[in-house]
Amino acid sequence: LSLCDTVGWGSDQGIGGFGEEPGIKAQLMNLIRSVRTVMRVPLIAVNSVTIVLLLLFG
Prior knowledge:
- This protein has helices at residues 2-7, 24-57.
- By secondary structure, the protein is an all-alpha fold.
- It has one domain.
């Protein structure tokens, strides 16, 4: 998310007060963070299998 920090979409922005709806930027950042967290392990597995197959079959 360092690219988002450079553009000014850091994780500390978009935090509202009590009872306020989070802004669209905060919702997008939460979505991106959640997808990255959930997909980390499957992507590591897919990359590992791909590397092994490339090493075996060139």
